Amino acid sequence: MDLLADLRVRVIAHSPAAAYAGWLLRQFGAAVDMRAALDPEGLGAFLAEGAAFDPAPDIPDAPGPLLITDAPVSDAAVARLRDIARESAVVWITPFGLGTAWERAPSTSLTHYAAGGWMCHVGDPAREPLAPPGVQDLFIAGLWAALAALGWGTRGPGLLEVPIVAGLAATMIYDAVAFQYFGRLRGRVGERYAPTQPTIVTLPCADGYIGIHAALHGMWVELARLCGHPELVDDPRFASPADRAANIRELDAYLLPWLARRSRWELYHLLQSHRICASAIPTIDEVLASPQLAARGAWRTVRTPSGREYRVPGPPARVIAAAGPAPDPDPADPGPWRPGALRVVDLSMGWAGPLVGHVLAALGADVIKIESHTHFDWWRGSRPPGDDPGLALHERSHVFNAVNRGKRGITLNLASPAGRDVALRLIEGADVLIENFAAGVIERLGLGWASVSARNPRLVMLRQPAFGSTGPEAGYLGFGNTIEGMSGLTSLVGYEDGPPTMLANACGDPVSGLIGSIAVLSALRARERDGRGRLLECAQLEGFLPLVSEALIHYQRTGELPRRRGNRRPGSVPSGVYPAAGDDRWVAVEVETGAQWSALADLLGEPWAASPQLADVAVREARRADIDAALARWTAARDAEAAAALLLERGIPAAPVHTEADVLVFEPLVAAGFWVGEEREPVGFHLYPALAIRADGEHVTAHGHAPLLGQHTAEVLRGLGLSEDELRELEAAGVTGTTPTERARA
Hints:
The protein has 746 residues and is of the alpha/beta class. Helices cover 36% and strands 16% of the residues. The radius of gyration is 25 Å and the shape is globular.
């Protein structure tokens, strides 16, 4: 792929964060010059292929092409990078951001997850919260860094920051917004994704566990029928998600016997064939053997310096087709668009697609979101039986209201010829079209690539199918949980003696949204050179695979399947999450060095902890149970914030396990302006997350509240040239509207 053929990038990678950012840009065609501290026989063979390997790569002395680094924060690094940023763009990944009280706090991936809010909702409510098993936080930061480089770093000199913890907070599923809306903490629900989502669940079956992700009403109806109990749909115990959540064990009494008679792969294909999102929760070897990924050619082979070969993920996006070239549109006739702005039509629903539109809005694009009042974005929420229209529940969704900020919104019934024709007129003048419908839907609506590119050969169109448009599973559906599960990540998360466990943020969705944003910006840059529009496909599963590349390479290198290990980190003793004073309060602690152990031993005050033999991590590993017990006694006697502060003062990586309420007041986020206030009817004023990118010390954000249903329909259609009589005719025919119809569902 050569979309970024004119872009040169320097990367100084101390960790996978900067290396992954460089890898991403290289997949889109950028010329990347990398120096990396990664193991060339391990993860470095994948992320830093062709790089110069250096255990301590230094920051360059002079300005040059765009620079991406995750160099540790120090006085010297601050001075040198600020100096370079005067003449060229610099993207700097740091744990907590510059100029905050936590700027130089010692940290690890485990403590990032704790501080950034990724842990508090994962695991059993009677046990400690769970973190992901590897450095997924660094991959998330690398995504944000690649986006920062491409979206903002190409505009000229300056320092762009990507705080890792902000990257995590920005990819939570807006729980901090939900807390403000509803006044309650989400908590942990063990095998369930959330208390409000009883049919997004990991349950045992005949040969392991199956992930069922039946988030929508139609999926619930089909699930009840499949398990042999269609009457459950009309049972008052299960009438709504809230009812099903209140009667989970009764619900499981119907599901578990049915699941117990079937294998996970049988269930996976059965559920998917009935349009229910599901994951077979494959292990890492099964991911490598996936027929879908093989049919798609999703793997490539890299060779290490010693000659070992690994199969690793290939590019996260593909150019499926191109059109044009075509001249620029007439700037004197903006039509319904804001003059001078990038023009984006957003047909997508949920999170992955709308996040692309949200990112583009933060870049200054004019994003027009198209829904229908008969079938609106499912993230607005389905209308439950007996819904009072006066409550306007479709305007009270914290997730919809968060990710659609900065957009205008119109309603068009795309299933009607008139609605399709108006949409085509709007798309005719657009730069970008985003869609994430199920396979074949966009073509049935008459808005497929052949139709739209014929009318607009400069259009960049993004598609985000769960598994890709080809292969034996091309038509299968996926939410973020499904993608996470099918990547192998879910199989790695969990207690050492427990089942596989979903993360709490539908992680596949924000990853896909960020990759889609990078793909669109890359295609737009290529269009500046050649005037061609392009059809992009970002298969969500393929884009997610790098986040499990550690495990993929470990398995191929050792022949051992990675196993679930709770919060333990290899080579770090102690490492885990320990109870603090108060109800469900926890502290994450990870000791990586002998000096950190010595400092911790002094704090614990246990005579045996002072033994010189415990300076050896192997000896500490043999006494891990004793050390964990002593540390748990110490943390339990203290407030989580106070315990973390004492540990950090002594150079020991630690952080409270923050809830969604805690991240709202976490100093590195608050001081940096990560939370942005918006007033929106009918929910009022709330704080929403910005992007995890700081330009000139301030977080980048999209301004303006999410649109009400059909809020800008008349304004936009008038801009297209429709008369008042035509607007009234469209409304009378049910093509447009601002109130959900009687049978409207997400």
